[in-house]
Amino acid sequence: MTREYDVCLLLEGTYPFISGGVSSWLHRLISGLPELSFTAVCILPSSKEEWPLRYDIPANFSGYKVIYLHDIPELGFKLFRPKTLPADNEIQNFHFQMSQGDFSGLKKMTEIFHGKNKAVPSLYELIHGKSAWNIFEDLYQSTAPENSFLDYFWTYRFTHLPMFKMLMQEIPKARVYHTISTGYAGLLGAVARMRTKRPLLLTEHGIYVKERKIEISQAEWIYVAGREKMHVQRELGSFQKMWIKIFESLGRITYEASSKIYTLYSGNQELEIQEGADPEKCEIIPNGINVERFQDLKPPEYPTPDQRKFVIGFVGRVVPIKDVKTFIRAIKIASMELGDSFEAWIMGPNEEDDNYYKECADLVNILGLENIITFTGKINVMDYYPLLDLIVLTSISEAQPLVILEANCAGIPCVASDVGSCRELLEGRTRRDRAVGPSGIVTPVADPGETAKAITTILQDFYKRQAMSFAGRIRVGTFYRESDLNQKYLSIYKEHMALEDFAE
Q1: pTM, rounded to two decimals
Q2: pLDDT at position 77
Q3: What are the angstrom distances between the C-alpha of 269 and each of 60, 203, 496?
Q4: First and final CA of the chain: distance in angstroms?
Q5: Residue 289: phi, psi to the nearest 5?
Q6: Cys bridge to 316: 41, 163, 286, 322, which one at CB 3.0-4.6 A?
């Protein structure tokens, strides 16, 4: 008998094979809910690479399966005999419906690809078959006849092979399905809901469609006519637009199929709604931290009014997206007012982008900050938080930086650029949260002057620093306790597990 799990997670490029913020959150969520049984479908690029486990698997996580997106089916040396795809008209019509934003035919596709009809196409036929070729030719002639036929062919194959795989997958039996992105994992979630009649939940930490748009607009492997010419590329190429259209469609399919849609902060939620999510389905559940781990790193009486020497910390990788150069310039400006009353530590790995690290190190020397700024390299933040008096983040992009929560929990105020959820973390998200008071200062992106002003404002005013330290401890302990947020997910799971089966 096939086992039924409480929750089946649908994961693209994350846990338990790839480490990172989302994977760590998943590991803590699963570990924090031992009363539930979890399994997963894990989507990875190719079996040609090795994918060792990056986490110690919790006892309540088992039976997971792996799908390799781009493994191409082979027939070996068998003679290929062209076959007609079952319901090839429906397949072709669904493509045209999708191009018009109509996804109602997906349910019919799940039936075609999963055996409700007598004849089920093989993956090989869908990629190499004569009937599939005819569908492809018709799509090319009707949608992109002015483009390179060969480039269109490979774009079609590379984007559709993963979608065909999702439509044909055997899905573990579960009471609730939970996808952590749209994209191919979201498509599989929509298929699971239609096939099993069980609810689908979606949690997005980063907005998948937005991230793919950024990647595609910068991709060198997607052909763009005229790119070989030396001029600024202002317009996306037709194949870039084709990729983006596909991921927008997969996003809308996932949003339509999901019973509830969760994300970390209001800015993300606004992007989801712009991409087609129903506002009535949307809810914010931020990440949390283990409060007990950080709350005693500083003594209860911190800060004290007699302090005259300070340590400013920058926690993050030395890479362009963290805009370390703005931090360095801000330190130079702040030093003109604060003199030698402080030092600054840049704490994080510096080997990821050697050129950028060298540029940052050179900037420190040019500005004469060798005696103030230290690059520590990769560190254990637990060893350093007790020594810090202020955290400064100058990133040009963030979602919900845990370093703010960790520092505030320890009573350390923060200065952060106005990206992601930084303003909500430092000033409050709800009316009750805002009443706690600010636990830091938010500054414009790439603005060393305002960043320096925020640094000096906090370090020169004991009462402000004291109030921010108190507010941070209260805010994190009240609104960002990981155990409380895990319990919220437990309630969500139980609520949806109790639902009767429903049809589309």
Answers
A1: 0.84
A2: 38
A3: 31, 11, 21
A4: 27
A5: -130, 165
A6: 322
